[in-house]
Records
---
Amino acid sequence: MPLNRLTFLTNLIDLFTSTVSYEERLANFVYLVARNFNVDQVLFFGLDKNRSRLFLNADSRKSVLRPRLEFALGEGIVGQTAQQRTPLILQMSQLPVQPENQPLLALVPNVQTLACFPVADDNFLYGVLLFISRVSREFLPVEKETILIACRMLAGNIRQALLHEEAKKRIAELAVLYEIAKATGATRELPVLLEQVVSISAKVLNARGASLRIVDEVSQQIHVSSEYGIVPRDVPPVGTLFCEKPLLTGELPSITSELTNSQGEKHYFAGIPLNLKGHLKGMLCLYDKMGANHSFQQFDQENIQLLQTLAGMATSSIENALAFQQIEALAAKNARMVNILTVLHDISAVLMTTIEMDKILTILVRALTFKNAMDYDRAIIFLVDKRRQLLVESRHAYQPSAASTLPLRQALLADLGNPEEATPVGPHPIEVPLRPDQGILAQSVLFRKPFHIMRADQHPQVNQQIREQLSGQEFIAVPLLAKEEATGVIVIDNHFTQRPLDEEDMHFLTMFANQAALAIENSRLVETIEASSKELTLIRERMLESDRLAAMSSMAEGLAHEIRNPLVSIGGFARRISKQVKAGEELKWHELKKYVDVIVDEVGRLEKILRQMFDYTGDSLGYFREHEINGLVEDALTLIHRDLEKYNIQVVKEYADLPPVYCDERQIKLVFYNIFQNAQQAMENGGTLTIRTFPLEKKDGLYAAIAVSDTGGGIAPELVYNIFNPFFTTKEQGTGLGLSIAQRIVSRHYGDIEINNELGKGITFTVTLPIAKYCLLPLKNSTSGTTSLEEV
Amino acid sequence: MKKILVADDEMSIRLLYSEELKEEGYDVITASNGKEALEIVSREPLDLVILDIKMPEMSGIEVLRQIKEKYPDLPVLLSSAYSEYKQDFGTWASEEYLVKSSDLEDLKAAVRRHLKN
Ligand SMILES: [Mg+2]
């Protein structure tokens, strides 16, 4: 069975958009591929995480017990295909077996052909697909191309599966971290915690002031995070008391110190480092221990020890709080990422559901602007018109979309046929010539580069029309890249909300654009395939037409031959008679008799031809009634009975009881007479004529079927298509009109003739005629019961 | 007496041709198919052959080819009910191609022409 690309690719799209697990999809994929390309076995080898070895992941013959198979990159046909990323086909008959391929050959005995295709997208190789055939097999260019498309679709699917796995893992990790952070730091938030540490320290030691400084992980500078009481301002920076730099290495000792300000007033200071696992996390400072009469005192060793304990207790809490704060920030950032990844995954799943360009564009614009998707205010999609070298505005959304209550996937797919959305560009789409001097959009496509423009109105490279549409705002343009080639560009802005765009927007839009480009590319591929299959249909129709013309001219030719021969004889003998009479000779009666007999015979032959032509062209009026078909067949058989006996042909009859058929008795007898005659002529050396009647259920009702088989050896297969052509004959006798007439009559009865030609055995003609009840012909009052065909 | 072979699958044509040609004073012998014609050609000394094209089993063209292979000097006239083959006859190496007609004067003239040589 020849490969049907469209059906196959549609099957793949169905498979890849189905909800089954990734493993199951892969298994179904290899099975589908093996079946469609008619090979014994198809294996998928996946590349491992280290990108160095390929492992057997899927096998189209699941039930077969197999050894564990793996290949290093570059090893055997599997490894080589992965390394070179190009298809490799090995014909065993032409090459000595490489030892590296031995494990494959051991898998299936008598392998003749191994064909290996890379499963990769533009960036990554995910594995290879191996075709194993026990018969020597070539791969046509169209097959290779289809396999590569399938491999590419598989690659896209694997990539999505990986992406989805990644996203799921990250959500799980975050959830755990979140819980831990909540448990340990539940009591306090960092600012509250710091405040409490400072105030408690100051109160415990009766100090006039205290401060807590925390090391900022990012700037690696120590800064004041919390203060309590009175902290002297004009004293040297505390950091200098420890050492200049670096502050963050090693455990520091606690210190006490006496400081003098510009007015010569003395202040007392105690510094306790917050050390955690050998790192300085911050510093607790206390100032001016107050004595009994409000005098200031230096902190003593006991105070320092107390402070150290307190600092020790505080440190881990602060650390936890710090970690919690960081995690919160991280979680907020990651939540967006996970959200976007999920959105992207949903979008790509939705994109997989259609190959119609219009629908894809609608989905893309929705995905860009929907609140629960990418959530940009406005979006325009431009596609490259290769022929005209233009970027053409193909779809836009100039208004923010109303928030949808549907889940994203359903929202993207809802009402896709809506004509308003399908042609929203208007009569004058923006067109940008594809030249580097034509601004950002053209450059984005030509240089395959995204752009983030802060002020469209001030940027010299922004195309005038775009500037008008974007009204001088910030926007992002990302190219649609498929296979090294840019097929268009996406432009978005936040015109209404004025939400600023950032690096992450660029990042996600680029990911989005890659998926969009893949969908657009697939759609175009399928369009190309559809166009070429349409073209094929046209060509086939034209060929059929020229067949018909050829048949007509061969009919004219045959007719000329069939008529000229008898005319020549008739005319010739008439002339002879005339000559004899004119010459006044004594008439030779026996000669005259001979000539006249020829003339009569030949005229009879001409009349027969005309009669056949007459029936054939259907000018005769039909007399339609309900008839028992078995009886008509039997009548036709008696007409040829003598010939059958003459050529020693046995007749085998198997008649089933059949409801009546509505038909013209005379014409239907002629059908079977012609078919019997054809069979008899095929069996000049004897044989068996088998006639079988039986009921046959077709889509549109019940039919009477009459199968007539001969044992005449059949005809050459290339001649079968000519068998109903007028004047086509392989026989000595006969005009070649018989079967042509039979076919014409049967089709006038809304029936059918099928041929089954078995070379070396014989031909079976199966005539099917509608049972009267189901007949399309008008059933008139059966007593007056006649109707002409012309009324039908 | 010049001897002419008429090969045609139609009995009436064979009869007509032989009656007319006998009247012209030729010895006429007939064949009803290609095989028979070739047999006669190899057996009898002939002066001219008139060949029908559409005959069962072996077409006149094939008979012509075999005759010309062995007896390149034996003149052969093609006589057929098909008029549209006429333009091709040059490639078939026959002496002349005549479309069958009830008026046999053209045929007889052609026979005379080629027997003279
Ligand atoms: Mg003939």
---
Amino acid sequence: MAIPFSYTLRNLLARSVTTLLTAGGMGLVVFVFATVLMLEEGLKQTLVQTGSMDNVVAIRRAAQTEVQSAIDRTQAAIIENQPEIALDRSGQLLVSKETVVLINLKKRDSLAPANVMIRGVAPVGVVGLRPQVHIVEGRAFKPGSAEIITGRSVADRFQGAALGQRLRFAGREWTVVGVFESDKSGFESEVWGDAEQLMQSFRRPVYSSMVFKLRSESDFAILKARIESDPRLSVELKPEGLYYEDQSRLLANFIKYLGLTLSVIFSLGAVIGATITMYASVASRTAEIGTLRALGFTRSNVLWAFLFEALLLGGAGGLLGLGLASFMQFFTISTMNWQSFSELAFRFILTPSIGLKSMGFALIMGAVGGFLPSLRAARMNIVTALRSA
Amino acid sequence: MKSPAIEIRQLVKSYQRGGESVPVLRHLDLDIAAGDFVALMGPSGSGKSTLLNLIAGIDKPDSGKLLVSGVDIAQLSEHALAHWRAQNVGFIFQFYNLMPVLTAFENVELPLLLTPLSASERREHVLTALQMVGLQDRMRHYPGELSGGQQQRVAIARAIITDPRIVVADEPTGDLDRSAADDILHLLTRLNKELGKTIVMVTHDPHAASFASHIQQLEKGLLVHAIPTH
Ligand SMILES: Nc1ncnc2c1ncn2[C@@H]1O[C@H](COP(=O)(O)OP(=O)(O)O)[C@@H](O)[C@H]1O
Ligand SMILES: [Mg+2]
């Protein structure tokens, strides 16, 4: 580029208020854009991290989620006896027959009710199958008791869910004896207790799902084929990681498309702002443009100088928006996951790819906004431009 | 007899105004020898600036021949003309036309950015040119921090930085007081005498014109007198 960078940059700085307002407009759009992607990413990571790829989930065929699923004891016994299922060191099967129920709890600050998922697990379901789950306060529940442990985000946000407190559901009082964390995954939005105790209290004769580990991951295809074709069974097998990824898809896509639609609509405003700013910038520098052309700079030199100025505006907007958006990483939000109908807490996560996409979006806004003004600058007649002085 | 630097034959130029064609130059002939310092005089609106712009290759004639250093610039494409200007013409304007956001040094350097010179070579050239106009100590100043006369001297340094054969100046002293104007005129005389530049200067001030080697009088688009001043 023949026309120096300093010329472009200093012209932007010389009109600092206009530059700041225009870049700020684009920055807000980039903020919305980046925040939406961060939300989608946070949701995905929360749910995807929940499951692990070497655990297998069995649910009733055609049930999208554990909540809608049911596996009776006969079926459970058949599945449990498959030879591919791994044992732990003490020779115990690594199978957790689980039940999930949604209950209504009140939020601690607003007292607003929200659905929380109660998961009944086998003791092995905590230690053997979910090593990412750590009890950080208190201890594990005792099998056969009315003890429960609560996920970090439930413990923090719901009334009666903190360590030592009591929750009342299924006609009984349950004591919170521990609080667990699991790498900020979806389990932190759940309450766990002993599966058999919970089933009795909720008067549910059937399990919701089964989670187990295989001796070897390569056995998955064979086992899946056998189980899904067994006429006595009506279940479906999925790697646990995939199961949770599927759970996040609907909500993640909704957030993404709603957010991107909003971003595109807002960006029209920001682009028009950039266009107006750049037209003003071209108009106020008509004589300078004429002079540059007289000195031998070509139409395309002028075009690029102004386009570059617009790109710089967009880039500044992008950095501004990303800077703002990066603060969102300190916040956790919660929403209803429509697929499980339970409340799910997750964070905004900024990844390098989101950063690049946001900057790309900002630069495109700058380029689109700057295009027509730059074209006008490049097309000026030299003599007419010089006479405007 | 010096070789002609500029040879103009039957030059016609008109402007469109309100759908009407207004003739400005009517079949004008003019020769300017290499190394001449020509003052173009004449009443306002007589076409002085138009003629100067055509010679400098920033405007196109309707018809006629416009040979500058042997090249018929009327025939050059837009793009070729831009390169031709960068190499062959230095511009001096009435209102200096410096870039306000660039320092004196950077303003003078600007035309060199179109050449293959390295940064250190450019720096050397710029310092020499600024020294010639006596402003080396002001090279970090912005135009807004300089007087009119100083700004015009920076503009002169910019005009000669690529060592063009021809320097065009449109009312270069029109915005200056007498003493600053004289500085500029002395500088132009030096460019002409010491560096051998061919200079074409538009002015309506007889005092300014007296610095030139020839005066051409323009009236209603035609040259009426050619007066040698010396
Ligand atoms: N770009 C233009 N468009 C329309 N008319 C012009 C243009 N440039 C010059 N003219 C007209 O041409 C005539 C000569 O102008 P100019 O060459 O600037 O005169 P001078 O420099 O002698 O005062 C004037 O009548 C002027 O109004
Ligand atoms: Mg004029």
